[in-house]
Design brief:
Layout (H helix, E strand, L loop, with lengths): L1 E11 L2 E10 L3 E5 L8 E5 L1 E6 L16 H18 L1 H15 L4 E8 L2 H11 L2 E8 L8 H15 L5 E3 L2 E2 L7 H14 L3 E5 L4 H10 L3 H8 L6 E5 L5 H5 L6 E5 L1 H6 L7 H7 L2 E4 L9 H11 L8 H15 L15 E5 L7 H8 L1 E7 L2 E5 L2 E2 L4 H19 L2
Helix pairs in contact: 1-14, 2-3, 2-14, 11-12
The chain binds zinc ion.
């Protein structure tokens, strides 16, 4: 049996226990109160990033280059992804290097959508955290056809069946890269397989313009037509939804993945997160593509982005990253409760601590992290990957970056 002790243990976004230890094996066994614990320690549930592209980590800084989404995709993402499709090893190296930043920010579960996901799966297993993986399905684009992409995604679902840490879903990328019929076909397939989907909707206003001009559909019509609520759905961004479309996302099967840094740097706009929360929608956080791949930076960015737009506080954002994120991935409750999976993080924070959750966002560093009771981070570094391996992988990746995206 192991234990993690904190001056503060944040057992839920509503409740903090002082001077307590969490006792666990693969699951949480008990919480012992009234133990003497060092002042500057906090224990929380692990955090989830529910919209991530680990394979884009090597080109993460390009989103700060003043391009809007479509220009950024055609200038940086497509060339990188075409190369990556030919080099599965690059997906592995990109994912491990991304995880070396993401996991020491407190992330213990990640929903990833990209290519060569079987190699991304290997990276996640090497690091030891939970993954929910999907292939970026599109009609053409990086693939010869949707059928080729879908076959790859179905194969992934088959391969990951029965895995302890990993699972798969289907990844219809966005309404602009699949027709409504194709998108609906993917949802049908997901329903048959008993898996969810992961998609981008309304990151930019062009999604609804495209649907209106090409198919005479509103976003609400589209969401209804494809039957998004029939399966567990992660909807990334949801920035440009009118009230009608927004209300259709208020459903126990749907989680909005809010990605404040990429939305800011690509100047997509601010998703109406306050409105979603007030309506009762589930909203989690995603690092998407971000210069830091740190979920704590996403919390800080979200706080800033929403000032004057229906403010959010640290506790709501912590809830988004734990409870909403874990429930979106159907892993558990996202709470430190007896019987829950032991995905737990021990943080060091600067004193004085006036608010434990705010402290994480302003001065937290991860001392230890556990996934299913297994230690994956010690003193801020991954245990599954050596320093030497990381240096080698980074060197490998930077050679490809030069080929793809020289300044
Ligand atoms: Zn994305």
């Amino acid at each position: 049996m192991k234990e993690l002790c904190g001056r503060y243990v944040v057992v839920s976004p509503q409740r903090v226990v002082e001077n307590a230890c969490v006792v666990f094996d693969e699951r949480i066994v008990r919480i012992e109160e009234e133990r003497g614990v060092p002042e500057n320690t906090i224990v929380t549930h692990g955090l989830a990033s529910i919209h991530t592209h680990l394979g884009l980590y090597p080109i993460r800084t390009t989103i700060a280059g003043r391009a809007r989404l479509d220009e950024w995709v055609s200038r940086y993402a497509w060339p990188w992804e075409r190369m990556l499709r030919q080099e599965p090893e690059l997906s592995y190296a990109s994912a491990v290097t991304a995880l070396s930043e993401l996991v020491p920010s407190g992330v213990t579960a990640v929903a990833d959508m990209h290519f060569n996901e079987e190699r991304v799966a290997e990276a996640l297993l090497k690091v030891g955290i939970r993954g929910d993986l999907s292939v970026a399905l599109m009609s053409g684009g990086v693939y010869e056809s949707l059928d080729v992409a879908l076959a790859e995604n179905m194969e992934l679902v088959k391969k990951l069946a029965g895995s302890d840490l990993l699972r798969a879903r289907l990844g219809p990328t966005t309404p602009r890269l699949l027709s409504p019929e194709e998108f609906r076909e993917v949802v049908d397939r997901a329903e048959e397989l008993g898996v969810g989907i992961h998609t981008h909707i309304a990151e930019v206003p062009e999604d609804s313009e495209h649907l209106r001009m090409r198919y005479g559909m509103s976003l609400r019509d589209f969401i209804d037509f494809v039957g998004l609520t029939r399966v567990n759905s992660i909807v990334a961004h949801a920035v440009w939804l009118d009230a009608e479309a927004a209300s259709s996302l208020v459903h126990p099967n749907v989680a909005v993945a809010h990605c404040p840094t990429s939305n800011t740097l690509l100047r997509d706009g601010a998703a109406p997160v306050r409105r979603y929360l007030d309506l009762g929608a589930r909203v989690g956080l995603g690092v998407d593509v971000s210069p830091s791949y740190s979920i704590i930076d996403e919390i800080a960015m979200a706080l800033a982005l929403h000032i004057g737009r229906g403010d959010l506080d640290f506790w709501e954002l912590f809830e988004a990253a734990t409870v909403a994120g874990y429930r979106a991935l159907s892993i558990g409750s996202g709470l430190i409760e007896v019987g829950e999976v032991a995905d737990i993080v021990l943080w060091s924070v600067e004193r004085p601590v006036v608010d434990p959750v705010a402290s994480l966002a302003v001065s937290g560093s991860v001392a230890e992290a556990y996934v299913g009771g297994r230690k994956v981070v010690e003193e801020g570094s991954l245990l599954g990957v050596s320093g030497g391996e990381l240096v080698e992988l980074r060197r490998n990746v930077s050679g490809y970056v030069k080929k793809c995206c020289a300044e």
